[in-house]
Amino acid sequence: MSEPVNPALTRRGFLSTSAKLGAVVMAAPYISRGASAGSDAINVALIGCGAQGRVLLNAAIKIPDLRFKAVCDIWPYNRTYCERLLGKFGHQAKPFEDYKEMLSAVPDLDAVIVATPDFYHAEHANGCMKAGKHVYCEKLMANTVENARSMVLTQRETKKLLQIGHQRRSNPRYQHALGKLVREGNILGRINNLSGQWNRAVSDDLVAPPSQVLPEAVLHKYGYANMHEFSNWRWFKKYAGGPISDLGAHQIDIYNWFLNATPKSVMASGGADYYKSHEWYDNVIAIYEFTTPTGPVRAQYQVLTTTSAGGGYHEYFMGDEGALKMSENPKYTKLYREARAPEWDQWVTKGWLKKPGEGEEGAAVAGKPWDKAEKPKFTMAAPRSSVVDVRETAALSAWDIPVTLDKPIHQPHLENFFDTVRGKTKLNCPADVAFASAITVLRVNEAVAAGAKLTFKPEDFVVA
Amino acid sequence: MNRPVFSHEAMNTYFEVSIASTDQLLARSAAAAAFRELDRLEAELSRFVESSDISRANRLGRGESTVIGDDALECLITAADAALATDRAFDPAYASERPPDLAADALPFTLDPAAHTLTSRTPRLRLDLGAVGKGYALDRMGAVLVEWGLPSACLNSGGSTALALAAPPDAPGWPVGVGEGPSREVLALANSALSGSGIAVQGAHLIDPRSGLAAARTHRAWSLAATGAVADALSTAFFILRDSEVADFCAAHPEIGAALASADAGLILHGALRDAPRFPAS
After folding, report:
1. Phi, psi of A68 (to 5 degrees)
2. For residue A23, what is the enclosing H or E element?
3. Residue A385 pLDDT > 70
4. Which of B47, B48, B51, B199 is the best substitution to test chain A (most A C-beta atoms within 10 A)?
5. What is the structure's pLDDT at A4?
6. pLDDT for position A237
7. What's the pLDDT band for A216 if we cut at 50, 70, 90?
8. A residues 385-404 closer than 8 Å to B (CB)
């Protein structure tokens, strides 16, 4: 066998012979993904290499014809991780601590992905757009209405693209559910109510490895009080909007999108009841009122951070003929038909729905262990059975949506952004749309603080 | 020394981490970081997660390719290597359709590490990292602990694979049991991994990928290797292989150990497991 030519085969011993392994692990001439990006490649940088930045990066490196040229983070620990990951894919990304330095040192950037804490979104997105870059910025658009407004205005002024990371808007399952099931087929009938939630179990505060703690001078320079707040910024009012913003924003954005409306009021209750080392409300329950062409819609939303009960995270649209439980997790996604609804067989014939219990096409050749059922992650105790419960109707049958997202869940939204940069399509979550969602979300915290029902005016959702 | 055990559910089982450290807050934080890494890996490697690299690979037609992440690539290289070295007694693609023109010892996929792509050689690729992914996850979790400045720890996935990092300061290694009944021994495991395969826990679930028939072996098999991923894959292979084939394998790979339980002869040891350090029988 010729000399190994790629790094994956040179760094350790193997059990099998190199001749055998070479037939599976191709020792092709070393052409890495980054290096093979063509002349029409988009030059990209990432600002913010923390947990969410890594998620976006792991999705983006699978998209063809992107060339990562820079990574920026004030924390070397995170920055180095992303730099190394990109290196494995053949991207030579220069590391930076300061985004301004990055923008001047790497002038040929076309686009920037911003995944910094929320209070930095406006500065980073606006700075990049003013420097002539298209921006993909994580949600929530910003931690304050003023910051979000500034981003809309900068986008208009610079005419650069600004996509906000409400990634469900590019998820093919969500697009199918809204476009076909809700709108074209009107399968749910008249939607009167919504509920939604993100419930997660108690989690410890994030702590940095001792050798990686940032000096206080660096933390202060960039506006962080200390390492605890830097690591757990989502829980502090200075940097972000708390769980309703971190988690709730995903689902509340879907309420607006699916109803094609913005709410007219919100009331909410919440509190910093459980965690002693946080500022933000660790549980919030909100009720919105919408007005839609078919009538009023009342929508409940809860974000709970001390329980995983109730099936994780979903948005549940309840109509008089059917209910649609949407989730980014396909296991939580179901449709339920009301007995009074017309039969759904026509939608199965059309390929819009899958009948209860129908498995995926193309079974494996072998039986066990391939066919073994996956154990449920979380099981609740069965409710006590009663002999007859005359108050309840029979359980509705659960139907499935035959659309698969076989990519990292953020990849389609990133692809939509880069395709728009190439002029092939339009953004699925541009600045003005994300602004309306940000207003819808941020007002919940105001309602909790005020202890009152707050009303929205239609103009609240629009930047004049 | 009594050490707290941190536990987390993932990959259809429980993972446990025990760390030799007097700083319990640090140990707890590091274990939490290791478990975050585990959850991330499950999303990349599980065939039950629709958006994973493996699920996507399992939708490829013959000749089609997909870009995979670095962890899927690394894990698949290890899996392919173990499959080739054991003549497919362990095979991560056991459930795939094997086209007539695919040689008996060949795998129905290829990997291009530089481009990070996987290409299917079959119209129906069915990858399952169930017998290597948990060991791979242990290796990555161990790397996280080392990064946190905690080089002495022992991790296990559902009791089926144990990865020992450096020995604790007060012992020659981490106590890890091998064998059953009277022939059970307790290894002092350090900087290596031990994995066991059997049919007692999950029933008859081990199929010989080459014949499609249930494995002939009825008693457990163990493997010792430098990494969790290799140990995990080899324990499955050793359960499938005949006793003499296991012996031959260990003779050809002196860094590997094997232990085979039998009804009458107790525990038969091969290779590196013969001389592995042990705790005295109690």
Report:
1. -80, 120
2. helix A18-24
3. no
4. B51
5. 39
6. 98
7. very high
8. 404
A367 at the B interface (CB within 8 A)? yes
A48 and A73 in contact (C-beta within 8 Å)?
yes
* CA angle, residues A208, A212, A217, in degrees to nearest 5: 100
Helix-helix angle A51-60:A411-421, to 10 degrees: 60
What fold does the segment set A31-160 form as a domain? Rossmann fold (3.40.50)
Question: pTM score, two decimals?
Answer: 0.92
Residue B74: inside a domain: no
Q: Which CATH superfamily is domain A171-357+394-405+429-461 in?
A: Dihydrodipicolinate Reductase; domain 2 (3.30.360.10)
The verdict on residue B195 lying in a domain is yes
- How many C-beta atoms lie closer than 10 Å to residue B102's C-beta? 14
* Angstrom distance (rounded) from CA A96 to CA A93: 9
Q: How near does any CA of chain B get to the CA of A336, in Å?
A: 22
CB atoms within 10 A of CB A455: 12
* Assigned domain for B98 exists: no
The number of distinct structural domains making up chain B is: 1
Of A343, A311, A338, nearest in space to A327 by CA: A311
Residue B135 lies in a domain: no
Check: CB of residue B53 under 8 Å from CB of residue B44: yes
Phi, psi of A331 (to 5 degrees): -70, -25
Q: How is residue A176 written in tokens?
A: 């199918």
Domain boundaries, chain A: 31-160, 171-357+394-405+429-461
pLDDT tens digits, A233-253: 999 999 999 999 999 999 999
Query: Do residues A265 and A288 touch, judged by C-beta distance below 8 A?
Result: yes
Q: What CATH number is attached to the domain comprising B176?
A: 3.10.520.10
pLDDT in tens, A244-285: 999 999 999 999 999 999 999 999 999 999 999 999 999 999
Mean pLDDT, residues A104-128: 98
For residue A100, give the nearest of A143, A142, A70, A66 by alpha carbon. Answer: A70
Q: Do B50 and A15 touch (CB under 8 A)?
A: no
Give residue-wise pLDDT tens across range B22-62.
999 999 999 999 999 999 999 999 999 999 999 999 999 99
Q: Is there a contact between A261 and A294 (Cβ–Cβ < 8 Å)?
A: no
